[in-house]
Amino acid sequence: MKLKKILHSLTSFVTIFALTSGIIITYAPAGAEDLTVDDIKDRIEQIKQDNAQRRDEIDRIEGDITDKQENLDKAAGLLNEQKELVDYYYNLVYYKNQDISTLQGNIDTLTDEIAQKDKAIAKAEADIAELDKENKQNLEKFAQIVRTMYTTGSADMFGVLAGSADFYDLMISSEVVGKISEQNLQFMNELTADMKKLDSDKKLLETDKKDLEGKKTELDTQMTKLLSEKEELDGLVTDAESAKSTYESDYNKYSAAVSELEDQKSNLQYLINVSEADIEAYEEQIKEIIKQQTNPDKEYQEGEWYWPVPGRSYISCNFGWDADFQRTHKGIDIGDAGIYGDSVLASKAGTVIVAETSYIPGYSYGMYVVVDHGGGYTTTYAHLSDVYVYVGQEVAQGESLGAVGSTGYSTGPHLHFEIRLNGEPENPFNYVTMA
Ligand SMILES: [Zn+2]
């Protein structure tokens, strides 16, 4: 009792799982419903023509891509060269700026030195002026001495001196100085020496300043040259950058053109692939139609139709329009949990006209059996895991045809069961009742 309950829950779980996982049964290309073999062949021919045109177009595009790729490669080469040139010019500008900054440092140093010389010269001039002033005061004193000597009659020659306007000139002339007592002239000589020294210092300073100014003029000339060279480089950089932009926009243009063509090409290739899959599906469809052709002379036997998997009653997909998969379902799917391997029974007596054991995994009916019951009636049993009958075999009603499986276009074990009349799918529930 307990075990039964557990099994029941397990079954419910599996059933719900099977329900939610969605069991897909047969595959038919879009729009292939109810077409004759000739219709399908026309469609295949049309697709082949379309694909031939697409392939021509792809060839044309590939030629175009080759041309554009050449341009693109050329543009890429030019762009790279130009990038190198721009980098090279930026390097030159960098070093030129370093030269300018070094030179500016030297000029600044020289300017400072000149300013210092100016200061020293100004100081020497002030000192000289100071000494000169002192000297003139001393001369005045000396003149006083001389006048005193004269009036007391110490020396006649001083009469001339006393009247002289430019006393200083006369004073430093050795003839006169020699006659003046050392005592009296001592301080005069010291002053004169100091002045001479200052004067010569000042001259040296001025010479130095002149040298410095000469050097500065030279550096200023160098600076003018460097600045003009830099200006020239800046011009080259601007031109190179502008050429680079042009090459860049060329490159982008060709690159965009190539990718657009590549897109066009892969779109066409995609269409070809999709429609080639359609062709395969159409060819399968033709095979199925041809296989299922019934014997027109076979007579239909009245009587009930058997449920093909007795004891199994879970319908995972009904006959007719299936909104989930946007297609018409040509039969019913019986998908009870545990159905895998169940015997599939002939719904009525008849002749086996299809006993297919080879199939493409993921496509169509997988392994399947079709039985001709006469009067244009057939039954189809699809996605089998095994087939027990052969084409041409007469089977009795209820005879085992194969085993339930999940081959072909199927996501789980189930039996896809169809009843057709003259090739047109009928709702099986108009014929069979569950058993
Ligand atoms: Zn089905």
UniProtKB/TrEMBL annotation:
<dbReference type="GO" id="GO:0004222">
    <property type="term" value="F:metalloendopeptidase activity"/>
</dbReference>
<feature type="coiled-coil region">
    <location>
        <begin position="188"/>
        <end position="292"/>
    </location>
</feature>
<dbReference type="InterPro" id="IPR050570">
    <property type="entry name" value="Cell_wall_metabolism_enzyme"/>
</dbReference>
<feature type="signal peptide">
    <location>
        <begin position="1"/>
        <end position="32"/>
    </location>
</feature>
<keyword id="KW-0732">Signal</keyword>
<keyword id="KW-0175">Coiled coil</keyword>
<feature type="domain" description="M23ase beta-sheet core">
    <location>
        <begin position="328"/>
        <end position="428"/>
    </location>
</feature>
<protein>
    <submittedName>
        <fullName>Peptidase, M23 family</fullName>
    </submittedName>
</protein>
<feature type="coiled-coil region">
    <location>
        <begin position="37"/>
        <end position="64"/>
    </location>
</feature>
<dbReference type="InterPro" id="IPR011055">
    <property type="entry name" value="Dup_hybrid_motif"/>
</dbReference>
<dbReference type="Pfam" id="PF01551">
    <property type="entry name" value="Peptidase_M23"/>
</dbReference>
<dbReference type="InterPro" id="IPR016047">
    <property type="entry name" value="M23ase_b-sheet_dom"/>
</dbReference>
<feature type="coiled-coil region">
    <location>
        <begin position="100"/>
        <end position="141"/>
    </location>
</feature>
